[in-house]
Fold:
Amino acid sequence: MTSEHSETKLYVGYGATHSPMEFRDKVEELREKLRSEYRLLDFFGMVGGTASQVFETDILQCVPSSDLVVIICDYPSFGAGWEMTHAVDIGKPTLALANVASNVSRLVLGAAEHMPNFAFETYTDLLVDAPRLIDGFTARPSLSRPPSRLL
Structure:
């Protein structure tokens, strides 16, 4: 790794359980592409480990130790939603991405107005647009502010 982000620990989550294999393959292709620019944190995925180990790895290890969390919101996912919420709550810079044709909850769409460490962006081509959006997000000066707390 020789990029300016080579020491940045990146966690990429997405809804794998109910998404088609074609989408999962595309996300894995993106993850491999990002691996050349960032220190990508890995998770169990759809196989391997117990449910408890998946929770420990994703929520207790990967999200807290990351420098940046990216959640791809093309398909509904309780797990990805939990990761995204936890990341925002503990102050991690968090970027949610979704294809322009995806239906995304208005709660997610409105979160950036209240959470300074969170942004939502759309893409048309995951492999082309996501790296550019991630690089742009890391350059935002507002990410140095602590997150606001909702009461």
Observations:
- The first strand starts at residue 9 and ends at 14.
- The mean pLDDT is 90.
- Strands lie at 9-14, 39-41, 68-72, 94-99, 118-123.
